[in-house]
Amino acid sequence: MNNFSNRVCSMQASPIRKLVPFAQAAKADGVKVYHLNIGQPDIKTPKGFFDAVKNFDNDVLEYAVSQGIPELIEALQNYYKTYNMDFDKDELLITNGGSEALLFAMMATCDPGDRLLIPEPFYTNYNGFGQCVNVGVTPITTKAENGFHLPSKDEILAKIDDKVKAILISNPGNPTGAIYTKEELEMLAEIAIEKNLWIISDEVYREFVYDGLEYTSFGNLENVKDRVIIIDSVSKRYSACGARIGSIASKNKELIAQIMKLCQGRLCVPTLEQVGAVELYKTPVSYFKEVNDEYKKRRDVLYGELMKAEGVICEKPTGAFYIVAKLPVDNAEDFVKWMLTEFRVDGETVMATPAEGFYATPGLGKDEIRLAYILKEEDLRKAGEILRKGLEAYAKVNK
Amino acid sequence: MNNFSNRVCSMQASPIRKLVPFAQAAKADGVKVYHLNIGQPDIKTPKGFFDAVKNFDNDVLEYAVSQGIPELIEALQNYYKTYNMDFDKDELLITNGGSEALLFAMMATCDPGDRLLIPEPFYTNYNGFGQCVNVGVTPITTKAENGFHLPSKDEILAKIDDKVKAILISNPGNPTGAIYTKEELEMLAEIAIEKNLWIISDEVYREFVYDGLEYTSFGNLENVKDRVIIIDSVSKRYSACGARIGSIASKNKELIAQIMKLCQGRLCVPTLEQVGAVELYKTPVSYFKEVNDEYKKRRDVLYGELMKAEGVICEKPTGAFYIVAKLPVDNAEDFVKWMLTEFRVDGETVMATPAEGFYATPGLGKDEIRLAYILKEEDLRKAGEILRKGLEAYAKVNK
């Protein structure tokens, strides 16, 4: 009895997961492991969330409405207004995390065999979601050497055949930390119009933009407003990853009506988490400022350490809380494993994520890692040092 | 810009939804509407759920592990033990409601173009989930006249071609309220073995069995344990529909490992709801006894009223909290609409669900409705009376 579907068999188990036993073994040996491999922030979740949940006082925990509770829809409307995006109530849907929002956007725009155009490296689960609904990925390769910015319009156009139905981008980028310029977005918008494509814009890191850089949302481009689907989530913005509250926003009301059928199929998103999320959206702007300053400091610390290491190539990322760095190694996965099993500085080591899993093109990313700067400054400085020393030692071992 | 996927276009908007405006209009006119159309129980959620959520005291609401938090996995293990089902920890997964459990079971067993064998009438969303992942439904028709029990083995075998990959049943049945006998399950098990099919057993109403009837779970049949996938949920069992905590259980560890990849893709199920659900599973058995007695009483009241109406055909259901009744009308949807727009008894009326949407075979169910007996006895008696009087009046109007 082993007849699994091809689609589920084609999915890879989490690339991080196979390294977890090595981290566990190190910890069992009393080694302290700095986890730069996961995107779980240590920032406090705004207290309003917990207070609202604690004040919930119905006797029966009933189904919520499929769209999302009206209070949360309204909170989301107000949130978008601060970014000069004006969404009607019937242009918004609450989802089980950004994950479900992505899955639904793919289901609504692509049939089996269709494809998404995605700049690589990209969030691994884009591929996973695609596989489970039989949607392929056509990658646009971007490079560490120029901060993972987009190639030329012609290069992108050359990738598009009639199976491509949507452009999917993460901006700010996970795993790259890149912020696309307004010109890059306008180029993608032109392409979407010329080729009649949807634009699925994953903007869950919207507030994580540094160095006073201008951030443009696809929601601000007037000429594509009927084809833009904005994916969002409270996870990173409010350090509430465990709430699993995401959303879909689109000025295309017919699209929202189509996706509403998917929402009705799964009935609703948890009631309590929605009640809590309403309060998250009331968090004062000062919170973002504080969080932003903190992450910027962390980025500078980690990037600074990386730059001290010989042969590391990466532009300073300007958004999200990730760095993808090209290392002077042949096989980054082997290096990450070696760090966990062999290398210690005062009984401590570092866990990174090999970046190969973020690429769709075979062979790319083999010498790259992704680092999340989600630890406090002091720990991050130590982790950066250990990583640098590890690279030096690894170079000697592999001479 | 209207290129939606065929799969999303093929999905129907909720059949209940198009009648909602008529209910809203009636209410706006001051009419009281008894809702027998929805499966939202009025039973109190065990207080332990809310207490656990209120006692949660982490500062950061972090991602939970993809499988589900260990405490909940253990609680689920213990729960199944009371039904003589022994699941290892790696044979269980927590999901976003029974809905996600169903979707994942379909994805793991069926590729696009494959089919599920399902006794009809069935839970409408089976079809919806199937459509969004391109899986078809091959119905086995069951009838009100014999309490919606299964046809003969030969009749079922004749429906199966090589595109059918799994049998999907709901037991106790939604919308029928039927409990399959042990012999019926054994027959399906034989078929599954002969045709090498998976068995997806939706048992979310497991505790809702009346009249001292023996209930057999597919988890209790030894000869198919490697091909049974049990779908479960806290929604109905503990009147916690808004928690969206479901689960998948299977003795087939490889299947669980495959579905784990889907779980990793969506990262995790909300943390707080899982913390609460742990306590639900500690609810004493006396709770079920009380709830069960209450629903049995309600069933008797509603069924009694229905039987007073001339021409209504239905066997007394023995499980869940639904009745599907064949009415002496040509078009049940028209009747339901007429009740909402035209018929009142002392300023009150009743909303039922037309049953056509529960059938895959075109034309079936046109003269049937589903009723949920989820109101308290007194209200249910009134609602039953109004429905009966409505049928009499409708017969006169349509003579």
From TrEMBL, chains A, B:
Record-annotated Aminotransferase class I/classII large domain positions: 33-383
This enzyme's EC code(s): 2.6.1.-
Superkingdom field: Bacteria
Record carries keyword DNA damage: no
One GO biological process term: amino acid metabolic process
GO function term, MF aspect, one: transaminase activity
Family annotation (Pfam families): Aminotran_1_2
Cofactor(s) it depends on: pyridoxal 5'-phosphate
SUPFAM superfamilies the UniProt entry points to: PLP-dependent transferases
CDD domains: AAT_like (cd00609)
Top-level enzyme category: transferase
PANTHER family for this protein: ASPARTATE AMINOTRANSFERASE
Protein name: Aminotransferase
Source organism of this protein record: Peptacetobacter hominis
